[in-house]
Amino acid sequence: xxxxxxxxAATLWKPxxxxxxxxxxxxxxxxxxxxxxxxxILPVGRLLAVSVWNPDFTLAEFVHIAESPLYxxxxxxxxxxxxxxxxxxxxxxxxxxxxxxxxSGWRLAVATACVLVxxxxxxxxxxxxxxxxxxxxxxxxxxxxxxxxxxxxxxxxYNELSVTIAMTHVLLxxxxxxxxxxxxxxxxxxxxxxxxxxxxxxxxxxxxxxxLSLPGVASGVLMVFILSLGFYVTPALVGGPETLMVAxxxxxxxxxxxxxxxxxxxxxxxxxxxxLLVTVFNRFLGLDKKAAS
Amino acid sequence: xxxxxxxxxxATAAARRHTLSKQFGDALLKGVCALIxxxxxxxxxxxxxxxxxxxxxxxFPPAHWSLRWYVAYFQDPEWIGATxxxxxxxxxTTVAAMTFGTMGALALVRGRVPLKGAVRAVVLAPMIVPHIxxxxxxxxxxxxxxxxxxxxxxxxxxxxxxLPFVVITVSAGLQKMDPSLEMAAASLGASRxxxxxxxxxxxxxxxxxxxxAFAFITSLDEAVISYFLSSSxxxxxxxKMFEDIDFDLSPTIAVVxxxxxxxxxxxxxxxxxLRARAARRVKA
Lengths: 293, 284
Description:
The structure holds two protein chains of two kinds. Chain A is built from 13 helices and no strands. Chain A is mainly α. Chain B has twelve helices and no strands.
């Protein structure tokens, strides 16, 4: 038993070089790849396939989307919301990331906690919290009325405003963290050198710090935009009928209508846009890295 | 460190003006950031007090305090059932993702894997594909396989979503490891298997802890796929929360939210502390 085990171990794990031999590598990576193919690639592939094979090859579902003003409006709204949320998170994230590079000790710990605690809090919890804050008799309306800024409660919930606020909140940490990471890698001597050569604070920022942080900005923008396109929970809970997004539409088509070909076409569209963006950004970032080295 | 106090007399006025504008800029930056931090923390700060409210409807701040919604949560078999089910799914998902993810990371970093780029793409894909697409695709196929609302279905789906985190974290741990440590063990007469068990695996401890905590929290928090895979009888905590937020908004949701926040923060805080200590030890 032990001898045969040792023999088996010897064939799998020859002490040649520093790498595992191919048989052992395959044994280690095999279950992972097979499992992912069955549980992930197969379902996604099937969903994409039903969008064009029904039962013969057809592009009818895509034509259906392209010819429907309603679906085009939903698509446009999803993209526009993605752009708005990305821009808002960028504007809010940059100062925070910049400040965090100057903090240390407990101040940095507190700032990091402010960024990470929301990140670790469920999207459902945060949607619920925004309902408490934005509802008719909610916190924000009480504050606004208390300050005399408005006489009657404003309709803040179940519309585009509440979806934008809640999604900006959910995605803000995804923008702060990569920008912070990029800003941290800038050597402290560089801004100081620019300063000693006579550049004022604005020039130091715009000519030295900002350009060097662009890779972080790019990955933050990519991550936030992609995540925002596929958002399901937040628009469904804090949005209203006029904030129907692509993800919500896909959900409706499946659970309520069991219209798999149409859901598949929408999923293909969403996935296609996502992959295109990832490829474009990767190329851009890759070129950036090459230029830097 | 620059010191404006020692600047030459001729430049004093300019320097003072420079310092003033710098101080103003700093104050402005800090003020703006304080508001953004408030924005980030506001939902958490609102949910926790709401869970101690005494009223049926949602009011903030609560007029009276009580633990009645905590009692309601712990006495409601549906909430407790969903909670226990989610914990079971998260536990099994963590075990599955850690096992297959670690094996895969070892092969990808240390082994000879044909088509390495393709394998890596397959492993990382669940991170890029929008969750709504994964959710609907699995809903369609799992319906045929009779896996909707089943423990197997949830663990399978959540393992797919957690695997990229595990593979990335463990791979990073392996890549950062100093190979001379293993070589030292080998030169002292340890076999490769022994060196691996007594040197490599213990050194990967912090990476394992981080990956496992991430997998557990990701599974517990996962809302979209769980929503589609749940049945009317077997549902995760996130599906139950989704339904209640959508239909009745009772303060019980605040109780569940508070418990989730406390648990996530404790778990992730512990991991963060562990990682910081490991980083210090490496530097020392």
